[in-house]
Design a protein that fits this description.
This protein is an alpha/beta fold. The protein contains 9 helices and 5 strands; from the N terminus they run E-H-E-H-H-H-H-E-H-E-H-H-E-H. The chain has a single domain, classed as Rossmann fold, CATH 3.40.50. Strands 2-3-1-4-5 form a 5-stranded parallel beta sheet, with helices on both faces. Bound molecules: cytidine-5'-monophosphate.
Length: 201
Amino acid sequence: MSFTVAIDGPAAAGKGTISKAVAAHFGFAHLDTGLLYRAVGAKVLTGAEPIAAAEALMAEDLEADNLRTPEVAQAASKVAVIAEVRAALVAFQQTFARRAGGAVLDGRDIGTVICPDAEAKLFVTASAEVRAERRYLELAAKGHKDTREEVLADVKARDERDTNRAEAPLKAADNAILIDTSDLSIEDAVARAVAEIEARL
Ligand code: C5P
């Protein structure tokens, strides 16, 4: 039996943390779909052509250790506007979503485009300032030298591109449950997500 949890939202809203915790809680597999676009973006930064890179993408590319940088995030959001890039990544995500034993996928278009029939859909958001501060602290902890202003500009640029693109723009599915994490602790946000999914099992 399959059970799909779709978790969408803008950068650094807490999707990743919530998705990992929810997957661990229910024993579901987890796919961070941003990694697919980051892996394509990383290849483009080294000279690859985006559509060919997306079509040739392999599972081990998602484990490259350079995918969490701001440069790769920007490159990812640029390749993510290309319809053929998105199309090349659909089958992998849909197969993952329907694996036996349950799956959590987080991204921008999971509840709207990839898994419109997901059993549970969450849209996780927070103000741009709160999200930029979280991302700043995360990057600083990893030794990145980016300033608060640079991180906020990066978050806003990606929001703008992800929300306004023609192809699979970032938006909440009509039947998604909204979780605003601006004023929530991680524990409270996770508890809220777990309770909403529990109610749909
Ligand atoms: O989630 P993450 O920040 O890793 O995603 C990187 C970029 O990949 C996003 O800014 C977005 O442009 C793109 N993306 C997407 N659709 C998804 C996941 C990520 O367009 N499902």
